[in-house]
Amino acid sequence: MTRGPTLPAHRLPHLPTPLDAFNAAPDDEADALLLHCLHSLRWSRRIADHRPYPDVESLLAAADEAAYDLSPADLAEALAGESLPELPADTYSAAHTALTAAHAAYEAKFGHVFVVYLGDTPPAESLDHVLAGIRSRLTNDPEEERVIAAEELRRLARERLQSLLRGAGNCATSPNGAAPGR
Q: Comparing C-alpha atoms, which of 87, 67, 65 is closest to residue 79?
């Protein structure tokens, strides 16, 4: 039995990845996406200006580096854009009262909202983690707390950016983000 001619290899079309889309996005769109990850104009502009990134690891490294370089004014701008962590819907009212009181004391001392990276903290433990964090960090002096808050912001921005690159369409995955959290 004779066979017909061999067909050429079929190639699937290249589908853009979230990184491809980010690299190709107009400047204003990239800035807006980045500002959801960290509310610093300088940070977002620095990352957007260095596009295209060859891979996700390079983008995340650039985001970390830019976060380490935040000036006190940049840090204040980023902190002003953060919000209190969201509590699970079934949290009892005493917990809301405790968190509100602890946050009021924190904000009175440091002049900004409390930020904390919850990472892999199970939702059922997030309230305890946030309350313990506020209470322990209230003992810090302002400079020590500025350093800790900057590190927490860097970690939050990295997590939010990773979520964006997973194609979630919303890079605020942390309870401290401007958009709904997990």
A: 67
68 in Cβ contact with 78 (< 8 Å): no
- DSSP label at residue 122: -
In the chain, domain spans: 19-165
- DSSP E strand stretches across the chain: none
The C-alpha atoms of residue 170 and residue 35 are separated, in whole angstroms, by: 11
179 phi/psi in degrees, rounded to 5:
-95, 165
CA distance to 16, 22, 50, 174, per residue, from 167 (Å): 11, 10, 21, 16
Does 85 or 159 have the greater pLDDT score? Answer: 159
Residue pLDDT, tens place only, 117-146: 998 888 888 888 999 999 999 999 999 999
Residue 85 is encoded by which pair of tokens? 């962590």
> Architecture of domain 19-165 in CATH?
Orthogonal Bundle (1.10)
Angle at 176 between CA 142 and CA 174, to 5 degrees: 130
- Under 8 Å between Cβ of 99 and 87: yes
Tokens for 132, please give them: 């313990």
- C-alpha closest to that of 149 among 31, 40, 36, 30: 40
Percent of the chain, pLDDT > 90?
64
